[in-house]
Structure formats: C-alpha cells, structure tokens
C-alpha cells in the first residue's frame, strides 16, 4: 500500500516537472536571514517587485544551516518551481551536484559560476562599484585614514576591499586603508556585535569613513559608526536610510535585478544559461544617492564620482579584480 | 517493584506523552492563527506520505539512531553523555579523512573503513571526558558539553585552514571520490519509488545492525552485565569485582564510537563532503531519542523514526505554510522533547496509579 502510494507520489512529481514552463519561480534565501538589510533583503525585494508587477506568485524558503542546502534546493526543484534562484557562493558545490538531477529545471546562482547546461551564473563587478565608493570615502575623509570591514574572509570580499582601496588611493595616494574581516565561517555574515567592535577598533586607529561589506554584520558597523559620529558606507541594498546623516552612501549591488530578471525570463520562457556579468555599464552595481545622504555629498564629490564612473565604463580606468590573481595593488 | 506491565512502560506512556505534546502544539498553531488540522496534515503527509518524504524521514532517523544509541549505552552505566554532538562532528572528520586519503575502488571497501574511521574519531573524542570522569571525578555532563564547543572550534579551524579546497571560497572539503560514495536509496530502492533526491543510503542498514549489536551487548554479554550493574549501583558493582575505571572508559568509548558513526550517514552518505555543522543538532536530539526509547535499542529505533518524521515533516511544513516559521517548528519539536523527557513523571504517576488500582481490584 505504502509502495503504491509512493509510486503515485513519484509520478506526481514527474508530472509537475513536465509542466515546468508555466511553473512559479522559487527563491532560496541564504544564511543571514531575509531581513539582513543587505544581500538577502535585496534579493527578497527583487522577488517582491516581480510579485507586484506580474501578479503571479513564487515560492520561497530560508536556509538555517550549511547542511540544509541540498534538501532545500531539491525540495524547491521537486515542488516544480522554475527557475530556482540560489544566493551566494556557498551554494556552488551543492548546485554542481543537484542541477544534473533536474535537467528540466533552470537554476540561477548569484555570485558564483557553476558550469551546467541548466544553470545561469550571475556575477557582479563589485570591484568597480567599490572603487566609486572608495573615491567618495577619500573625498569625505578628514583624517586620511579610512577603513573596510568584510564578512567572511573569502576572495569575493577581498574583491570589494581591493576595489575600495584602489578608489581611495586614486584620490589620495597617501591615504591609509585599514582592512578587517569578521570571521572565516558563514556566521561572519550575521554578527553585528563583532562588526561594531571592529568598527570601534578602526576608529581608534584614526578611521573616519568605514565601508562594510558583511551582510547582516554591517548593521552593527553602521550603528557603531553613527554612535561614534563617523561616516559609514553600506552595501548591497541602499542602506542610506538606516542612519541618515551618517551613511555616506551605499555600494548597491543589484541582486534584486538579478532575481527579478531571472524570474521574468523564467516566466517568459527565455531563460538563458551561462554567465551573466553585471557591472557599472548595465547598472548591476553603483553608488546610492537619495534624500538621506544628499547633505553629505558635495557637488565636487558628485562630479568626481560620476566622471570616474564614465571613465571606468569607457575603459579609461581599469579596476583590478582581486579574484583574478589573489593580490591587490592598493594594499 | 513493577507496577505496570512492560507494554505500558514502552508504548502507552510515550504515546500519551506524544499526544499531549501534539495537543499543545496544535494550540500554539491555533494561537498564531493557522489551522492546526491542516498543519498536522502537511506534517504527516510530508514525512510519510510519499517516497520523497520517506527518503528524508529515514535519513534523519538514521542519524538519530546512531546518536540515540550512543546516549542509551552510556545511560545504562548512569553516564550522561551530552557530547554526542562533538563526537559526531569528530566522526565526520574521521570519515572525511578515510574517504579522501585513499582512492577507494568500491564503496564496499570504503564503507567498513569509514565505519572504523568515524567510530575511532568519535570514541577518541569521548575518551578524554571519560578518563577525567573515571580518574578525577570531573562530571561527565560538564566535560562532554565543553568538548562539544572544542570540537566545533576545531572543525572550523581545520575546514578553513587545512581541509578547504585551495581557491574555493566555501569552507568545505572536496567531494569524496566516486568509489567512496555510498549507494543511495535510488540505487537499491528505486522499485519502492525512491527518487534521485533521496538522501537515504546504506548507512541505514549499518544503523539497524548497530541496534542489534547494542541489544546483544547490553543484555547478552558479560560486559553489558557489568555496565548495567555499574549503573544500578556503583558500590555494589565494585564489591562484585567490577572495575569502575575500566567500565566507565569502555562504556564511553562505545558511546562515542556510536555517535561518530552518524557521520557515515550524514557526511559520507548524504553530503559526500565535510561541511561546517554537519551534525545539525542530531547529537542533542539523540538525548531525547534515548530518553523516549527508555535506552532500549528497539525503543531508540522507534523514537528515532518519530523524530525523523518530525524533522522531515517540520521542513515540509515550513515549506508549505510559510506563516509557520522555522522557529515554530523548533517549538513543536521542543514540546515533544519536553513532554517525553522532562515531564515524563507527570504522566507516569497517574498511569501507574491506575494500574495499581486495577491490580488491587483484580486480586
């Protein structure tokens, strides 16, 4: 009896897979939580935007631990969701294993390249966006010392740090850039207390602008910066509103666009596997200006950063990508 | 001394406990404005309603059998081994080292080696608290708990600095070579409807074998008799010539080894690589499983199945009813643990009284 039921269950799953073209898309929120005000929240907002505009529905689940990745991914695929969007480099090895088992399901992975026929890999030129906020940081700094706080110590985050340092040095070659990482495991994405501690340590070393690329940890960085009266730079989402007057700008990484476009392409049946690079030229990364940080950005700062942006897009300025050779010319 | 028939002790009381826990859970679900009947339906269907569900339920159950047996064996000697979590994590390290260091030609060779590796590392991690308890009197509850933290820190260090694939960003080992991967339920149970996704693998049969082995050990061998005698009364055991240091050490080594075996299922069978937090709290669930199973291998097996179903059903519930968050599912699981473990006497007293009165009436 049970075996019969199981067989029916299995056929039902196969049937769902066949109806993939009209299926609802799925989003797996990564560790750190949906409302991290940063990376995950950006993805969530992209999904919400698609929801409002299309009037359709999507499936969502939230990871709680490293070891759950495979079950969540498979569950999402088995439920018939298509495409399935996963966030973050940590999913790469799991997706390598899972994607071939579901040839009819399309997957999108953000921040990492997975070479499978049904996987779209979205990567961002974070070094370019970070270069721009580095330029702003150097212009806003009085002390000549600025700092960076990363989440987990991985090449991807060093890519942020390196772009930032290059931007700072482009404006002020004598500037001092302090770089700290929160930790070496995924818990480093969600440790605001340690983020605040690191910020205070950097302030004691003279830093007066701090850039956080640390997911949920950044909340603590921005809070400590506001408490101590120095400027901070947010990441991924526009975080200017968190502490108006203290957040200089945010390096926005349009994970929301990546999710939105993946959902949109899935619904239209135009899913494109392969690598998709999002940089300054296609608004994949950028710096945020709104009413919250307007008083902090002078006309000359705005002009310089916009000019730098144009020159990077035109190829006149090349920003070194840390992940290509594991080293940084700026520190 | 026996006021109740054995079936009441093994089956009736856990059943009443479970019903109470589910009733309170239903109340909590109703309080957050969801339909408890629907939620229970999703949980049951998700856990045992399809081959997909069974694949995960039995996979989780396999983990809990290992950690449950680990706690049960130690419990017979009145040793409260709370260190299953750390011992299983170290077992994972042992299994990973075995799988990665030899180019295994076939899983039939890799499995016994991994079993040995996992058990040895798990046992080694239990050995130090056991030695401290046996010779210095340091309480085993305290030391094993502390060793959980040391294990977790040690694994993070090793995964980040030593075992990580060079150039990779994620703190995890390389995937085990083909020859070290265990056949999953899809390979041997496709006729039962198991799909490729089933994490259930041959480690399940290792777990069943361990249940039998523990039963034989505890009730059919001299060592088992010594362990039980020691647990009943240390003074009497000593008087009878049972050496306490030896008994504590052997019991804890077996216990740690069983916990370490969990990695054969989770690390070698499912993930096929070592990741951070591969144990996922199964070491602590093992305590509840052993308590609920009355430290009897058959009871442990049944309790592990129940907790496996709760885990899988909970994951499914979170997926199907987003209003019920992950935290709610932990609450439901905690209620089951609370009622079966901590509040056991609340039910036991009245039920015992009932049987006593019935017996008086009969005689």
Task: Describe the structure concisely.
The complex is a heterodimer of chains A (331) and B (363). Chain A is an alpha/beta fold and 331 residues long. Helices cover 43% and strands 19% of the residues of chain A.
What topology, given as strand order, has the largest sheet of chain A? 2-1-3-4-5-11
CATH architecture of the largest domain in chain A: 3-Layer(aba) Sandwich
The proportion of residues forming helix of chain A, as a percent range, comes to 40-55%
Which CATH C-level class of the largest domain in chain B is it? Mainly Alpha
* Average pLDDT metric of chain A: 90
Q: What is the H/E string of chain A?
A: HEHEHEHEEHEHEHEHEEHEEHH
Number of domains of chain B: 2
**Number of helical segments with 4 or more residues of chain B:** 15
Roughly what is the average pLDDT of chain B, rounded to an integer?
Answer: 91
Please give the CATH class of the largest domain in chain A. Answer: Alpha Beta
Largest sheet of chain A: 6 strands, parallel
Poorly predicted regions of chain A: 1-21
Largest sheet of chain B: none
CATH fold category name of the largest domain in chain B: ABC transporter involved in vitamin B12 uptake, BtuC
Silhouette of chain B: globular
Q: Report how far the terminal alpha carbons of chain B are from each other.
A: 17 Å
Query: If you compute it from the alpha carbons, what radius of gyration of chain A comes out, rounded to the nearest whole angstrom?
Result: 21 Å
Global morphology of chain A: globular
Structure characterization notes:
The complex is a heterodimer of chains A (331) and B (363). Chain A has 331 residues and is an alpha/beta fold. Chain A has helices at residues 2-18, 39-54, 69-78, 92-98, 126-140, 155-171, 192-204, 217-228, 255-268, 299-314, 322-325; strands at 26-29, 59-62, 84-87, 107-110, 119-124, 145-152, 176-183, 209-213, 231-236, 247-253, 274-278, 285-287. A 6-stranded parallel β-sheet of chain A has the order 2-1-3-4-5-11, with helices on both faces. The radius of gyration of chain A is 21 Å and the shape is globular. Chain A starts with a helix and ends in a 6-residue tail after the last helix. The model of chain A is unreliable at 1-21 (pLDDT under 50). With 363 residues, chain B is mostly helical. Chain B has 2 domains: 1-34 and 323-354, no CATH class; 48-319, ABC transporter involved in vitamin B12 uptake, BtuC, CATH 1.10.3470. Helices cover 76% and strands 0% of the residues of chain B. Chain B contains 15 helices and no strands. In chain B, helix 2 (36-48) packs across helix 3 (51-76) and helix 3 (51-76) packs antiparallel against helix 11. The relative contact order of chain B is 0.21. The model of chain B has no long low-confidence stretch (mean pLDDT 91). The A-B interface holds A 2-3, 5-7, 9-10, 12-13, 59-62, 64-68, 70-71, 74-75, 78-79, 89-90, 92-93, 97, 101, 112, 154-156, 184-186 and B 48-54, 56, 156, 159-160, 168-172, 175, 192-197, 199, 266, 270-273, 275-278, 280, 315-316, 318-319, 322, 326.
